[in-house]
UniProtKB/TrEMBL annotation:
PANTHER family, A to Z: (+)-NEOMENTHOL DEHYDROGENASE, SHORT-CHAIN DEHYDROGENASE_REDUCTASE
EC number(s) reported in the record: 1.1.1.-
The protein's name: Short-chain dehydrogenase/reductase
Keywords attached to this entry: NADP, Oxidoreductase
Organism encoding this protein: Dendrobium catenatum
Family as reported in the entry's similarity comment: Belongs to the short-chain dehydrogenases/reductases (SDR) family.
Gene from which the chain derives: SDR1
GO CC, alphabetical: membrane
Length: 315
C-alpha cells in the first residue's frame, strides 16, 4: 500500500472510530425493547473483563442476568457489587471445560427459571502477549475456547425458552479468527474455501481442522503449515468458533416461528483486560458494547453473522 493510500485508510479508520464512539453513547430506544425483567441472560466468564461488562450492561437494560463464573466465590463477590447498584443479577458456578459443571449448570437453570432466553459465550483464554507466539498451551486453548463453547451451546440449546422474539446466542470471538483477514490469514486455500462456504461447514470439518492443528503442534510441524501467524493457537480456536457459529445457525434455521434461536459472533476489539495484560485501545465497557447491541437487536435478528463496532463484518 502506498503512502497516500495508507493515510486515507488511517483517516477512514479514525472517522469510523469517531462514529462508533458516538453510537455507543446512544442508548437502545425504549420502543425497540422486546425484553422484560423476566428475560434471562447467561454470560459465561462474567467475573471480570468483557464478560463482567456485558453482564452489567444487560442488567442495566433491565434483563435478569446470570453471571456464570468458574470460581464460585469470585462470581458471588462481583455479583454482589452489581446487586448493590440495584441490578438484577445472580451468580452461579460454571466451568465450560468441565462436562459435569456444564450439566449441573443447565439443570440449575431449568429448576430455577424453566430455561433461558440469551446465552453469551464470553469465557476464553489466551496465553500469549505482544509478539509472543508460544503453542505450549495449545491443547488447553482449543479445549476452552472452542470445545468448551461448543459444549455449553449443545447443552443449553435444549433449554432455551420458546419466544416470539427468538432466543439468542452470542459467541465472543476475535477478528484474529477470520479466514481471509488482511493479517493472520489462513494459508491453505482449500480449507479457506471450505470454511467460507456454508454448505461445506460441518462439525467434522471444524473438529478435523483443530485436530490437525493439535497433531502438528505435537509433532512439531505446525509452523510450516500455513496457520494464522499471530497467537496461532488462539486464532485457530476462534476460527473454529466462527465456523461453528455458522454451522449452528444453519442447523437451527428450520425452526418454526416462536422457537427460533439466533446465533452470531462478534469481536470486541483490542480491549484492556487481564487477557491483553491491560494493553489495547478500548475499555471493557467499550468492548462489551457491540455484544450487547447484537443480543438486544429487535425481532428478526440476523443469524450466522460476525459483528464488530456495531456492524456486520466478513468471516
Ligand atoms: P479475561 O481474561 O479478562 O476474562 C476471561 C474470562 O473467561 C474470565 O472470567 C475467566 O475466568 C473466564 N474463563 C476462562 N476459562 C474459563 C472456563 N474454562 N470456564 C469458565 N470461565 C472461564 O479476558 P477478556 O475479558 O479480555 O476476554 C473475554 C472474551 O473476549 C474471550 O473470549 C476473549 O477471547 C475475547 N476477546 C478479547 C479481546 C481483548 O482484546 N481483550 C479481543 C478479542 C476477543 P477466571 O477469572 O476464573 O480466569
Amino acid at each position: 500500500m502506498g503512502k497516500k493510500a495508507k493515510e486515507r485508510a488511517k483517516e477512514r479508520r479514525e472517522k469510523r472510530l469517531q462514529q462508533i464512539s458516538e453510537l455507543r453513547k446512544v442508548p437502545i430506544s425504549p420502543r425497540l425493547r422486546w425484553w422484560s425483567s423476566d428475560t434471562v441472560a447467561v454470560v459465561t466468564g462474567a467475573n471480570r473483563g468483557i464478560g463482567f461488562e456485558i453482564a452489567r450492561q444487560l442488567a442495566s437494560y433491565g434483563l435478569h442476568v446470570i453471571m456464570a463464573s468458574r470460581d464460585a466465590e469470585r462470581g458471588r463477590h462481583v455479583a454482589e457489587t452489581l446487586q448493590n447498584d440495584g441490578l438484577n443479577v445472580i451468580s452461579h458456578q460454571l466451568d465450560i471445560s468441565d462436562q459435569i459443571s456444564v450439566e449441573s449448570f443447565s439443570k440449575w437453570v431449568v429448576l430455577n427459571y424453566g430455561g433461558i432466553d440469551i446465552l453469551v459465550n464470553n469465557a476464553g483464554i489466551n496465553f500469549n502477549l505482544g509478539s509472543e507466539n508460544s503453542i505450549e498451551f495449545a491443547g488447553k486453548v482449543i479445549e476452552t475456547n472452542y470445545v468448551g463453547t461448543k459444549r455449553i451451546i449443545e447443552t443449553i440449546i435444549p433449554v432455551m425458552k420458546p419466544s416470539e422474539n427468538g432466543a439468542r446466542i452470542l459467541n465472543v470471538s476475535s477478528r484474529l479468527g477470520r479466514v481471509n483477514g488482511r493479517r493472520n490469514r489462513l494459508g491453505d486455500p482449500t480449507l479457506r474455501e471450505k470454511l467460507l462456504t456454508d454448505d461445506h461447514i460441518s462439525e467434522e470439518l471444524i473438529d478435523g481442522m483443530v485436530a490437525d492443528f493439535l497433531k502438528q503442534v505435537r509433532d512439531g510441524t505446525w509452523k510450516a503449515n500455513g496457520w494464522p501467524q499471530m497467537f496461532t493457537d488462539y486464532s485457530v480456536s476462534k476460527l473454529a468458533v466462527n465456523a461453528y457459529t455458522r454451522l449452528i445457525s444453519r442447523l437451527l434455521s428450520s425452526r418454526p416461528e416462536g422457537h427460533r434461536i439466533y446465533i452470531n459472533c462478534y469481536c470486541p476489539g483490542w480491549v484492556k483486560t487481564a487477557m491483553t495484560g491491560w494493553e489495547g485501545n478500548l475499555s471493557a465497557e467499550e468492548g462489551a458494547d457491540t455484544g450487547v447491541w447484537v443480543v438486544l437487536l429487535p425481532n428478526q435478528s440476523p443469524t450466522g453473522k460476525f459483528f464488530a463496532e456495531r456492524r456486520e463484518i466478513s468471516f
